[in-house]
Amino acid sequence: MSWQRLLSFIGFIFVFILLLGASVLPPANQIERIRTFTRQIEFNYVDWILEAAEVKFSQSASRTALYLTPEEQHQLIQLYLNLIKQSEQADAQLNEIYSDPYTENVEEAALPIRANLENIHHQLAKVAPIAEGIFETQLSSIIADAGLTTGGQPLPPLSFHVSPIPSSLIVSPRNVIRQIANISLKTDLTMDQKVKLEEEVDQAFNVSSLVVPIGGIGIYPTMVMQTTNINWMAEVVAHEWTHNYLAFRPLGINYDTSPALRTMNETVASISGKELGRMLIAQYYPEFLPPPVSENSTVPSNSTPDKEQFNFNHEMHLTRVRVDQLLAEGRIDEAEAYMEEQRVIFWNHGYHIRKLNQAYFAFYGAYADEPQGAAGEDPIGNAVRLLRAQSTSLADFLKQISWMWSPQQLMDAVHG
Predict the structure, then answer these.
(1) What are phi and psi of 376, to 5 degrees?
(2) CA-to-CA distance for 232 and 237, rounded, in angstroms?
(3) Backbone φ and ψ of 318, nearest 5°
(4) Burial class (CB in 10 A: 0-12, 13-18, 19+), 102
(5) Phi, psi of 14, deg, nearest 5
(6) Tell me, what's the pLDDT at 150?
(7) What is the pTM of this model?
(8) pLDDT band at residue 153, thresholds of 50, 70 and 90?
């Protein structure tokens, strides 16, 4: 990496640290009291950025991916995904050994698996940076083909790093669905700790809270969760790069200005992530290209739905609409009882939602790239989808909507 590129890279890191301070932590008057419960378990973004920047600098200095043929790049990505799969299988074996009441000598039984897992991690440490470099190069080419570059290069340059991802504590008032806090938590929290935190915050402030898992974060380099699903990885990397792209434009700068603008941002990134991710798979990994996803086939990644005709998005939409009605009438207890009844229905159909409350809708309702779902009757998602349908290309869509700073501009664009 040249000194010019190094300085540019450091500059982007500095910018995104500033953006992180503005977007990840809501205004102090809304969350400082809540943070009395989270300060000791909050994720340290500055340390992560510095560590990731060191990895990315080393990766750029070696430039190994540039010397591989397309066939070798394809094989290395497959090796990378296979190593992740082996790692997950070894972890599952260890969990089985420590859970099996009939295992007499747990440590002795675990020893060969631990040795195998250590070897897998050693291989991953060497392969992962190269795999990330290959993916960055390939997706950068897709972004260029889509007409989303400045001077022939994506701006900011596409850069991501795979690592454990923090979960987020989402807090909403009980009487209305609105995100008032989104606090990133350490990656190693147990479920017991998450549940205890939710209960403490709920009781202390009479709010609705939920610790949610996330797949990626649009800092710089972007943070992406490890996975064996290449389609999901392509979509998330593209999704988070879109957040980076928006961060230098009015829509991204105003991310936290209002819930409507947050929904605009997340819906735009979801649409862009799916389109760019699918383009990447189609061009470089066509054997993994899935058929187009229909509205009726939307399934949470941690669920195994039954074979009955149960439309998750439709049922979640109806649930959100009814909850909004009850809350608007001041019937908070009734709304919360109804959400628990609905959660049981979803559970019985294979959608294992741990908690369905106001915070759930405050978080998931912002991702409105598909019709219906957790957004309910919120018109923002529909307007964003309509603008995409009216645009001649993804580039035209992004270039138009990224320069908006109010929901009214969006409405004027699609209905004017």
Answers:
(1) 65, -130
(2) 9
(3) -60, -40
(4) exposed
(5) -60, -45
(6) 84
(7) 0.86
(8) confident
Mean pLDDT of 219-231: 93
Query: Rounded CA gap, 147 and 404, in Å?
Result: 19
Q: How far apart are CA 370 and CA 385, in angstroms?
A: 8
171 φ, ψ (degrees, to nearest 5) = -125, 135
Say which amino acid occupies 32: E
Both tokens of residue 29? 């008057």
Which range has the worst mean pLDDT, 90-94, 183-187, 200-204, 393-397?
90-94
Q: Checking DSSP bridges between strand 181-185 and strand 167-173, what pairing results, if any?
A: antiparallel
Question: pLDDT digits over 330-359, tens only?
Answer: 999 999 999 999 999 999 999 999 999 999
Two tokens, residue 296: 């009726």
- Tokens representing 50? 């510095």
Among 269, 271, 287, which residue's Cα sits nearest to residue 231?
Answer: 287
Residue 173 in contact with residue 156, Cβ under 8 Å? no
Check residue 26 and give its pLDDT: 46
Give helix then strand counts, H and E, for the chain.
15, 8
Distance CA 313, CA 400 (A): 28
